[in-house]
Amino acid sequence: MKENVFDYSNDVLSQKEVNECCQAHISSYFTVGKQLTVERVGSDSEKALMHGFIDACRAWANSEHPKPKDLYTIKPE
């Protein structure tokens, strides 16, 4: 069975949609509870990983023409 694949590369998102996409993507890897736990008791490397990922997502959200396909390539590494 062929899976439907939608191409959103030409879509223009509102700032609200960009922020919602960014928040959802961050939360898919780091729930709010996990973010708080890492901040309180995480190691320096765990904090750096989480901060780097969140900063990369924020940079995407603040770019001139953010595209969802680009956001989903950002992973905590």
Give an overview of the whole structure.
This protein is mainly α and 77 residues long. The protein has one domain (15-71). Helices cover 61% and strands 0% of the residues. The protein has four helices and no strands. The protein has helices spanning 15-29, 32-41, 44-61, 68-71. Helix 1 packs antiparallel against helix 3 (44-61). It is elongated, with a radius of gyration of 14 Å. 6% of the residues are buried. The model has no long low-confidence stretch (mean pLDDT 90).
Total of domains: 1
Q: What is the subunit organization of this protein? A: single chain
Largest sheet: none
The average pLDDT value, as a whole number, equals 90
Structural class call reads mainly alpha
Low-pLDDT stretches: none
From the alpha-carbon coordinates, what is the Rg to the nearest angstrom? Answer: 14 Å
Shape summary: elongated
Order of helices and strands: HHHH
How many beta-strand segments? 0
Q: In percent, how much strand structure appears in the residues? A: under 5%
Separate helix tally: 4
What is the rounded distance between the termini? 33 Å
The proportion of residues forming helix, as a percent range, comes to 55-70%
